[in-house]
Amino acid sequence: MALNTCSEGISFGRELEEASAAFYEELAKLFPDHAETFLGYAAVNKKNVSNVQRTYFGVITDGLEGCYAFNLEPGDYVIDVALPAGISLADALAKALALEETIVRFYNDAAEQGKGLMADVPRAFSLIARKRGERIDELKALGAR
Questions:
Q1: Residue 16, exposed/middle/buried by CB under 10 A (0-12, 13-18, 19+)?
Q2: CB 37 within 8 A of CB 89
Q3: What pLDDT does residue 115 have?
Q4: Which residue, 115, 92, 113, 103, is CA-closest to 33?
Q5: Where residue 23 sits, what CATH number does that domain have?
Q6: What's the CA gap between 16 and 19, in Å, rounded?
Q7: Number of structural domains, the chain?
Q8: Using an 8 Å Cβ cutoff, are 100 and 139 in contact?
Q9: pLDDT on residue 59
Q10: pLDDT value for 131
């Protein structure tokens, strides 16, 4: 089922943020040497949800919500948050990179599609995508150590 309304897009973004926050919390337990970094990512994910929701509630109207802002297929943005027992740090980081790339793609796609009808929510999505892009660079650097 496609995501069409702003509310649906934000709800799906919240699901991605919550799932990835749980993923990073689990990584923090599995790799205590990097727990501070992973827990920091989880905290930012939770802030992303509240920031987007605050932006949405600050600008949305019934008239706008009745419009269709997106045509996004949730199946195009499936993230794998399963961490098998005994996973190595290298494999966990590879999963984290794939997860981040998928979430960045969702936020960029949603921002692009929504900018014709809205300004604030797509701007918030673009900001999250940019920050998560920086996280990708951090994860790559972490794997290079």
A1: buried
A2: no
A3: 80
A4: 92
A5: 1.20.1260.10
A6: 5
A7: 1
A8: yes
A9: 56
A10: 94
What pLDDT digit, counting tens, does each position of 100-139 carry? 999 999 999 999 988 877 767 788 889 999 999 999 999 9
Would you say 104 and 139 are in contact if contact means Cβ atoms under 8 Å apart?
no
pLDDT under 50: residue ranges of the chain: 62-64, 66
User: Which tokens belong to 63?
Assistant: 């008239």
Does 1 fall in a domain? Answer: no
Question: What's the CA gap between 112 and 127, in Å, rounded?
Answer: 12
| DSSP run (H or E) holding 135 | helix 120-144
First to last CA, the chain: 42
Q: Is residue 125 part of a domain?
A: yes
- Domain annotation covers residue 64: yes
Question: Encoding tokens for residue 46?
Answer: 């939770």
Tell me what pLDDT residue 63 has. Answer: 47
Residue-number span of the structural domain to which 77 is assigned: 6-144
Q: Kindly report the backbone phi and psi dihedral angles of residue 3, in degrees, each rounded to the nearest multiple of 5, phi listed first.
A: -90, 125
Q: How many CA within 13 A on the CB side of residue 22?
A: 10
Q: Is 33 exposed, middle or buried (0-12, 13-18, 19+ CB in 10 A)?
A: exposed
Residue 2: both structure tokens together: 């496609």
